[in-house]
Amino acid sequence: MALYVEGLRKGVANGGMAQFQEMMRQQLESSMHTELEKLLDTSTGAERDVSKKDFEGFNNLFHRFLQVKGPSVEWIKIQRPPEDSIQPYDKIAARGLPDNVANSLNKLVVVKLNGGLGTSMGCKGPKSLISVRNENTFLDLTVQQIEHLNKTYNTDVPLVLMNSFNTDEDTKKILQKYTHHRVKIHTFNQSRYPRINKESLLPVASNLNMNGQNTDGWYPPGHGDIYASFYNSGLLDQLIAQGKEYIFVSNIDNLGATVDLHILHHLVSQPNGKRCEFVMEVTDKTRADVKGGTLIQYEGKLRLLEIAQVPKAHVDEFKSVSKFKIFNTNNLWISLAAIKRLQEQKAMDLEIIVNPKTLDGGQNVIQLETAVGAAIKCFDNALGINVPRSRFLPVKTTSDLLLVMSNLYSLEAGSLTMSPKREFPTTPHVKLGSSFTKVQEYLTRFESIPDMLELDHLTVSGDVTFGKNVSLKGTVIIIANHGDRIDIPAGSMLENKIVSGNLRILDH
Length: 508
Prior knowledge:
The structure is a single chain. This protein folds into two domains: 75-391, Spore Coat Polysaccharide Biosynthesis Protein SpsA, Chain A; 398-500, Hexapeptide repeat proteins (UDP N-Acetylglucosamine Acyltransferase, domain 1, 3 Solenoid). The chain is globular and about 70 Å long. The protein contains 14 helices and 26 strands. The strands form eight sheets. It has an eight-stranded mixed beta sheet with strand order 1-17-11-14-10-2-5-6, sandwiched between helices. A five-stranded mixed beta sheet has the order 20-21-23-25-26, covered by helices on one side. By secondary structure, the chain is an alpha/beta fold. It has helices spanning 2-13, 17-40, 45-67, 89-93, 101-105, 138-153, 168-175, 226-233, 235-241, 261-268, 315-319, 336-344, 398-405, 439-444; strands at residues 86-88, 108-114, 131-133, 136-137, 159-163, 185-189, 193-194, 196-197, 218-219, 246-251, 278-284, 294-298, 301-305, 326-335, 353-358, 364-369, 383-386, 409-412, 415-418, 429-432, 451-461, 463-466, 471-479, 485-488, 493-499, 505-507. Helix 1 runs antiparallel to helix 2 (17-40) and helix 2 runs antiparallel to helix 3. It starts with a helix and ends with a strand.
């Protein structure tokens, strides 16, 4: 990067800016090509072939990265989406369902993004294998949901997992336990791209191996890679040949992302010429979602705007709940035939996300990534559907985990639904401190999960434990000062209370 910038400065000084820029770009691309060829030469057979295909995608991304001149959106050109481009869910659901739901379901494939590790929650291995409810993992719940559909409607909805090189091996081992379930499970791997040195803009890996120091040399390039890796795997063609028409894509840690029959019916019942190729489920923003990507109208197309694309001067405006009222849940419904067409035409143009990282040894690198929702602008008749908040229930932290493990939700056939005993449809705001970050530690701090049916807000900080059958209502704040410990006694009922260092319980 430094060389590139230095080169541009010299170019400006010499007056031949455009010419010099182009020369520098070509030089960097040539150097990158040479280094990638060297990496390929360190392996043979199938691994080399897979990496060669991955590198084609990486080269394309790297080429586009070098071409970028300034921000990817001009703020002045941003418009609110037209009224009919974001439909309320109620309007879609009001049309009802056909007599033969099975016909629609047999055209569907469920795809879960399964590339992430559980490291942010202190767990080893794939995040999808963390237990979230009654000993069921994210993957267990997903399989149960689809199996329930297949049994209820006598259908054949398959599950496809997009793994990364981080999760593939562990996931495949666990899949054996679902052999006798009524769900066909397929997997494919997202690409493996080389991390590049921030200064030289060349790969940091010395060979294709994934061991030792070299492990840090590789990364999965974001979920926008789904289109290319799905197509390259051959699975896309296989599913089209089986008569499948749409995929429903979501993050595996979003427990609200279940198959919605109304949205599916809306898609498959469109007349051929007006077929909607891409649906993005959005939901109303709250103050907790201000950083979420939103839908805008840009140069005549519906487009996803992420916070990373927003000029610094407009970040507060972007976060405003009054101007940008909705955000992307990353629940997407996409036409298989359209993905195939766009891949073959090389027309999938996704904005590049430049993700800077510092490796354990202190080396600064960058990762070039893309987001799956950014492709909305490439598809015909794309649509946003404003869905209930219940379809967005991500578990990113142990605070989220506490909510889904509690009596706020009931579990049936792999799906979580809000308890009818809760008077408000909104979920409480829960903020657990650093003593709760890791799942194992979090579990030791609760003898049983508290009753949270009437809770609005919970903040816990410091060394705090909960006895059995604790009930939390209204706003509860528990703060153990450094060196102090607070044990909430079994059977306690805390309503609008602040509990501080020496276990004084005060009215809030």
